[in-house]
Amino acid sequence: MASRSASWLAASLFLCLCPFRAHADKLEITSKPPGATVEIDGVAVGTTPFAKDFPGGYFHKTRTALGSRLEHAMVARITLKGYAAKELLLSDGPINWIGLNGRNHGEYWLFKTARFHVNLDPIPEVFTGTISARVARNTAVDFAPQLSLQEMVAQTKPGVVYLKGLQRSGTGFLITDTGVIATNAHLARGEGSLLALLPGGVQFDAKVEHIDEDLDIALLKIEGSEFPHLTLADASTVQQGDAVFAIGNPGDAMLYSVTNGIVSAVGKFPSAGPGTWIQTNAPINPGNSGGPLLNSRGEVIGITTLKLVKKDGSGIGFALSVTDLLDVLHRFYPKETVIAEKLSGPVVAPAAPIAPAPKTEVGTVEISEPRGAEIRIERDKPGSYELVGYVPASLSLSAGRHKIILRRPPQVDWIYDIIVMKNSRVSLGRPLGISAPN
User: Fold this and answer.
1) What is the CA radius of gyration of the chain?
2) Which of 106, 141, 160, 263 is the most exposed place for a label (fewest CB within 10 A)?
3) What are the tens digits of pLDDT across the range 247-267?
4) pLDDT, tens digit, 9 for 90 and up, residues 347-405
5) DSSP states of 132-159 as a string?
6) Secondary structure (3-state) at 277
7) Residue 164 buriedness (CB in 10 A; 0-12 / 13-18 / 19+)
8) Rounded (5°) CA angle 409-410-414
9) pLDDT tens-digit profile of 227-241?
10) Could you tell me the pTM of the whole model?
11) Strand order through the sheet with 37-40
């Protein structure tokens, strides 16, 4: 015991008498093309090529109390207009910090490397193909009878994908014939790419092309064409009591497993996160995350996301609605093509010939601020707003009265009630609380 005390005392005196020099290392982030905005943990810190000094303890393991330690995971987001955003998980961890005396001082993280580089992909080259989707506003179509479970699985399973990363695995599904895959953000976050395995046994490298900052949605891309892909159906087509099916890859079970149940509820559920949620009693297990929740016509109505586990509850699963997925897709696909109706079944014949619609009289509405805000316009019925784009934008609207909402959380919504005249041009004023641009 005396020998151990003497050794510890000698080590302590050595550290006290020797001059300690705080060493800083440089973190560098580059991109091709350069000039991209760099956000670290949600805060804009500069543009590429980016360099910043951080304590040496962020780069190297430490065993003394003298160095600084990174006490949380660190994520960088790289964005450039016209290119798909990229996320980089900068750190590894957590690591237990054990001092020289063997005492555990908690957890810390380390930068994976001092230099990161990302190749940004042009949006038109990534988000190709056409999205097939259905909304409830289609009233002139008599849809085909519901599919049997066997028919539904045979029709949809080829479009489901098993995804595997370095630390986790889950499910995704193809939404275009050009290889765009939808899945959960928590499955793809921090991964440059995932292994994608199709039911036929063919493997692909799926590049992570977009991660939504608020919704648990990620978009991936595999190279190729003529992939089997699934039709989407937004939340307006979903009713309580509808039969639903989930296809996924639960851990310790067979791949592409199928479970069934009903829609228990549809609506907002803040405890699960933002967006519109579909609650179901279809069994949901780890590994199902990111997979499709399907209706009895084989259309995707939600992205399976989580199972609620509580002492007094069981059999409660949730899927984020396709309405939220379509909102994300509208950022990359023109409004005119994202709702490309893929209707099965005969069109109902009209009682009398329908005359051609008269040419619509339109005016232009220009919106320049606040940049990045969602633009939603009231459609069909009061209080029903449709996402039509993002600020800045120039909109062609039919002559008449329109109600427009600009939405940029966490600020309150800005609401405009305007009248558009034929061939007029209207510029919306700056919302209250928004400063003039520099």
Assistant:
1) 26
2) 106
3) 998 776 789 999 999 999 999
4) 333 333 323 334 456 778 888 888 778 888 887 677 778 877 777 777 888 888 888 88
5) BEE-TT--SB-PPPPPPHHHHHHHHGGG
6) strand
7) middle
8) 65
9) 999 999 988 889 899
10) 0.68
11) 43-47, 37-40, 75-79, 86-89
- Say which residues have a Cβ less than 8 Å from residue 231's Cβ, sequence separation at least 6: 132, 133, 134, 298, 299, 300, 342
C-beta of residue 415 within 8 angstroms of C-beta of residue 432: no
* Residue 59 DSSP one-character state: T
The full DSSP string for 182-235 is EE-HHHHTT-SEEEEE-TTS-EEEEEEEEE-SSSS-EEEE-S-S----PPEE-G
Distance of CA 339 to the CA centre of its chain: 19
Domains of the chain, earliest start first = 17-119 (no CATH), 125-329 (2.40.10.120), 362-427 (2.60.40.1120)
d(CA 90, CA 76): 7
pLDDT of residue 137: 45
Strand-pair partners of 258: 247
Beta-carbon-side half-sphere exposure of residue 186 (alpha carbons within 13 Å): 14
